[in-house]
Amino acid sequence: MENKSTNVVWHNATVTRTRREQKNNHKGALFWFTGFSGSGKSTLAHAVEERLYLNGYNTYVLDGDNVRHGLCADLAFSDNDRKENIRRISHMSNLFVQAGVIVLTAFISPFRVDRDNARKIAGKDFHEIFCNCSLDVCETRDVKGLYKKARAGQIPFFTGIDSPYEAPEHAELVTNTDANLEQSIDQVYDYIMSNVKV
Asked: What CA–CA distance (Å, rounded) separates 93 from 103?
């Protein structure tokens, strides 16, 4: 993306990421949950965050719907708007990581190129977690009634219906979210633990 900002100079802070991580007693990192609507991304991310929080870790969940109430309220769901949504989230997530926070994001983020760009922004701190759940199961759940509306033509550009979802090819972690939630929580928690130790 073209940078249109001019006459800006990066200011180096005296409170560094290393100092923050030493204070927190854990590293900052970005755990990017991706999958269909209804695949359990938000449920899993918040459940894992609860366990992390109770064990003294500094965390934050960035949830797709929540972010669209503010930072990305001006975006719809066209391909270009989805791309911009993920670009903003990627940069904001990276700021949290630099602050030494464990960030969990729950976004459909259907396109590989956008997730790859998020990976470029966060670098080695980026961990892709694929919430692997079949479209049939997600549609059966239909917690928010969105699939029903999409099938009725009331929601355009709906992932899995009239807009594609490109599953990760090299996710750091794949968890089967059409099965046992507790197993997925344990799996993700253990993975995070193995990547945030100072």
From this structure: 7
Q: Convert the pLDDT of each residue in 32-82 to its tens digit.
A: 999 999 999 999 999 999 999 999 999 999 987 677 777 778 888 888 888
The residues pairing with 54 across neighbouring beta strands, listed in sequence order, are: none
Whether the pTM exceeds 0.85: the reply is: yes
DSSP 163: B
Domain boundaries, the chain: 17-196
CB 159 within 8 A of CB 37: yes
Consecutive 10-residue averages of pLDDT for the chain (198 residues): 65 85 96 95 96 97 79 81 88 95 95 95 97 94 90 91 93 94 96 95
Neighbours of 73 (CB within 10 A): 8
Q: Can you tell me the distance from the alpha carbon of 19 to that of 35, in angstroms, rounded to the nearest whole number?
A: 34
- Tokens in use for 170? 């090299």
Task: Let me know the angle formed at the C-alpha of 51 by 37 and 55, rounded to the nearest 5 degrees.
Answer: 150
| Cα distance between residue 36 and residue 130, in whole Å | 10
The CA-CA-CA angle for residues 140, 145, 149, to 5°, reads 105
39 is a catalytic site residue: no
Check the CA dihedral 60-62-65-67 and report its sign: positive
CB hemisphere CA count around 13 (13 angstroms): 9
Name the fold adopted by 17-196. Answer: Rossmann fold (3.40.50)
Q: Choose the catalytic residue: 37, 39, 109, 184.
A: 109
